[in-house]
Amino acid sequence: MQRRTFLNNSLGIAATGILANHFASVSESGTPAESTSVENLTARLPPAVEHARSVALDVLKPSTKQLEHGLRLHAESVVFDSYGFAPRAAIDGSAIAAAIEAGASDIELSDMREEMSMTRYVHDAVEQQEFLNAWRISGVTCIFQNAGEEGQDPLVLMKRLARFTYATDLLKEYMTKATTPEDVLTAKQAGKHCLYLTGNGVPLTQAWVSVPDELRYLRLFYQLGIRMMHLTYQRRNMIGDGCGETANAGLSDFGRSVIAEMNRVGVIPDCAHSGWQTSLEAAQISSKPVVASHTVCAELDSDPHARSKPDEVIRAIVDTGGLIGICCIPKFLRGSGDIEMLLNHIEYVAKKFGVDHVAIGTDIAYTSQNAEAENKKVPRRPRRREDFRSLWPNDSFMTTSKMTASLAWTNWPLFTVGLVQRGFSDEEIQKIIGGNVMRVCRSSLP
User: Fold this and answer.
1) Eight-class DSSP state of 274
2) What does the alpha-carbon distance between residue 157 and residue 179 come to, in Å, rounded to a whole number?
């Protein structure tokens, strides 16, 4: 079958009525809501999404039976991205250009861009349609949403938390903030989507008066809805070494106190960006599940990326009852860097460490198809130095557009199709695409 014919057949499944069913029972694997219709996954695809689906199907080459089964299973199931981003709106290019003309600082401009991309869909009708359409096409029920800029300053961490609180407050008809796994089930049943919030750092006073003083904001952020936190980002902090540090020194004494407080309060320790030794030690001392919410397996490449985890670390995380979320970043996946490589990493964890301990944490987002036109309205700015938090070890891996397209966030339904191809049972697939994250969330609450 030719690629174009195959793609058209796949996108036309819903129109034929073959798979457009609604289900009567409510469970973690399905609900009777409109979101269970396969038509929602396949109808009215924007050109960029159709292209990405085409690229992924060219790689996977599923049979019609596999495709139909995978799409139906995806539509039925609670799909929970173990770390990612809600669809992003286009900026208002004219407003940013005007701010530049008025002499806005780099910080002000950065905040404007971020706020627009994270909230413009609340009040802009065109962007809202883009936002809701991307959710529909993805079939994702819930995202463990990045809701905190990388760092420890409570005021900095609060910005994204405020933006997504604002968005869920004003878009309750479509998207809610979930604070328990039951909220996720309720959203699925109602045909809505939801965000489970994670911070990209542990909020610290940074006054260093005492350990309790340093940790007092951790509970506050839990009360505001944060349910997971990065221990470190790329660099070293007072908790431990990040994955970009060559020293790999591990968890500090203070870091051990942080883990204990996270366990007590009900916040999941996330070592996705932590160094291997920090990740290992965090898992060894934690009394509740630890996760690497968006990472890859080091053993699958002779030159693994710094963001990967070796088997020793994966085993320690699994032994806490935690999980390994496999991300959709080609340079982390290595090898072919595409949807097949994503499936290879998932299969590796499932077969070696157990299907109960693997998830998909995409670490990517859909961006409005209006973004390119809006970005062109913004004058070029002088080149800036690389942010300290983003410094990586040198890496020669070359990412291609084909890799990126095959792993597009809106290709979530095809991730499920790929798992069907790999021979996983429906029950196993439902664990991988959502059930395992739900279990860890339950286990972590106080």
Assistant:
1) B
2) 18
Cβ 342 vs Cβ 326: under 8 Å: yes
Measured CA to CA, the distance from residue 259 to residue 321 in angstroms comes to 15
Q: Which tens digit of pLDDT belongs to each residue from 165-208?
A: 999 999 999 999 999 999 999 999 999 999 999 999 999 999 99
Which secondary-structure segment (H or E) carries 178?
strand 175-178
The strand ranges marked E within 202-309 are 226-230, 268-270, 291-297, 308-309
Contact by Cβ (8 Å): 198, 293: yes
Measuring CA to CA, how many Å separate 189 from each of 27, 50, 72, 77, 275? 9, 28, 16, 11, 39
Q: 6-34 burial by CB neighbour count: b if 16+ within 10 A, else e? A: bbeebbebbeeeebbeebeeeebbbbebe
Please give the Cα distance from 360 to 415 (Å, whole number): 9
Tell me the CATH architecture of domain 3-444. Alpha-Beta Barrel (3.20)
C-alpha torsion angle, residues 166, 171, 175, 176 (rounded to 10): 50
Q: What is the pLDDT of residues 209-268, one digit of tens each?
A: 999 999 999 999 999 999 999 999 999 999 999 999 989 999 999 999 999 999 999 999
Residue partners of 84: CB distance under 8 A and separation at least 6? 143, 144, 145, 146, 294, 361, 362, 363, 364, 365, 409
Q: Which residues fall within 8 angstroms of residue 426, CB to CB, at 6 or more apart?
A: 29, 73
pTM (global) more than 0.85: yes
> What is the rounded distance in angstroms from the CA atom of residue 173 to the CA atom of residue 41?
20
Cα separation, 226 vs 8, whole angstroms? 42
